[in-house]
Amino acid sequence: MSLSNASGLEIIDISTNCFNGLVPVSLGNLKHLTTINFEDNHLGSGQSSDLNFLTFLNNCTNLQVLGLFGNRLGGELPDSIANLSSQIRQLPVGSNLIHGSIPEGIGNLVSLTFLAMNKNMLTGNIPAALGKLKRLQKLSLDHNRLSGLIPSSLGNLTQLIAVYIEENNLEGNIPTSLGNCQNLLLLNLSYNNLNGSLPKEVIGISSLSISFAVKGNSLTSFLPTEVGNLKHLVELEFSENNFSGEIPKTLGNCVSLERLYMAGNSFKGSFPLSLENLRSLQDVDLSHNKLSRVVPQYFEKFSSLKRLNLSFNDFEGEVPKQGAFANISAVLVIGKKDLCGGLTEL
C-alpha cells in the first residue's frame, strides 16, 4: 500500500513474478504513472471486486500502458474503463477470469494500438464502438464466449495488422468491410458459427502474409478467385466448412504458402496444374473432399513437403513414388479403393 506514497513514480513493472492478492486502489494516487505492468502474476481470485482498482486509475491521466495479462482477475470490466487516460496505447487484459460484456465505452480509448481481451469468459456482442479505435494495430478477442455478428465497423480500423477472434460463438456473415484493412498480416476467424460466402474483398487482402484462417465455421459457396492475391501468405486454413466447387487456378499464385489446409469441405474436380508453382509447401491437408482423377505427379517435386493428406477423396489411378511419396509416414491416401501403385506399404 505504501507504493502510493511514491508520488513521483512513472513506471511500475512487477511482471513475471508470483504476486497475489488484490491490486491496491491507492495506485490511483500516482498521477504521474505512464506504465503499469502486472502481467504474468497471480493477482486476483476470480471475485467481482478484483477489478475495482480500474476506476481509481482514472486519475492517472498520463497512463499509456496497463498490462494485466495472465493473472486471476475476475469480475466484469467496469464502465469506468471508458474514463482511462486518453493516452493509453496498450491494454492487454487477456488470460484472466473476466466475465460479462465488453463496455461500449472502450471506444473512448482512441489512442489504443494494442487491445487484448482473449482467454477470458466474455459474453455478449463485440461492440460497434471498437470501430472508433482508428490507431488499433492488434486486436485479440479469441477464446471467449462472444456472440452476435462481427461488427462492420471493424472495417474502419485500417491500421490493423493482426486480428484474433477465433473460438467464440459469433454468427452471420463475414463483413465485406474487413476488406478495408489493407495492412492485415494475420486474420483468424476460426471456430465460430459464421455462415454465408467468403467475401472476395476479404480473401483478396494482398497484405496477408502470416495466416488467414476460417476453420470450423459453416461458410458456403465457391472459393473466390481473389485467393490468388495472397502471394505472400504462409498459412491458409479453410478446413471444416461447406465450401464446394473446384479449387481455383489462381491458388497457384500463392507461391509463399507453406501450410495449406482445406479438409472437410466439398471441393471437387481435379487439381489445377497451377498448383505446381507452390514449391514451398510443407504441410497439406485436402482430405474429406470430393476431389477426383489422378494424384498429381508434380507433388513429387516439392522438396519441402513433409505431410500430404489426400485421404477420403475420389482419386483413382497410380500413386507417385518419388519425393514425399517415398516416405510412408509423410503421405496419407486411405479411404479409396481405386488407387494403385506407390510404395508397397500402401
Structure description:
The protein has 346 residues and is mostly beta strands. The protein folds into two domains: 1-148, Alpha-Beta Horseshoe (Leucine-rich repeat, LRR (right-handed beta-alpha superhelix)); 199-346, Alpha-Beta Horseshoe (Leucine-rich repeat, LRR (right-handed beta-alpha superhelix)). Helices cover 2% and strands 24% of the residues. The chain has helices spanning 53-56, 200-203; strands at 11-13, 20-21, 35-37, 42-43, 65-67, 90-92, 99-100, 114-116, 121-122, 138-140, 147-148, 162-164, 169-172, 186-188, 193-197, 211-213, 218-220, 235-237, 244-246, 259-261, 266-269, 283-285, 290-293, 307-309, 314-315, 317-319, 331-332, 339-341. The strands form seven sheets. An eleven-stranded parallel beta sheet has the order 6-8-10-12-14-16-18-20-22-24-27, with no helix packed on it. Strands 11-13-15-17 form a four-stranded parallel beta sheet, with no helix packed on it. It has a four-stranded parallel beta sheet with strand order 19-21-23-25, with no helix packed on it. The model has no long low-confidence stretch (mean pLDDT 96).
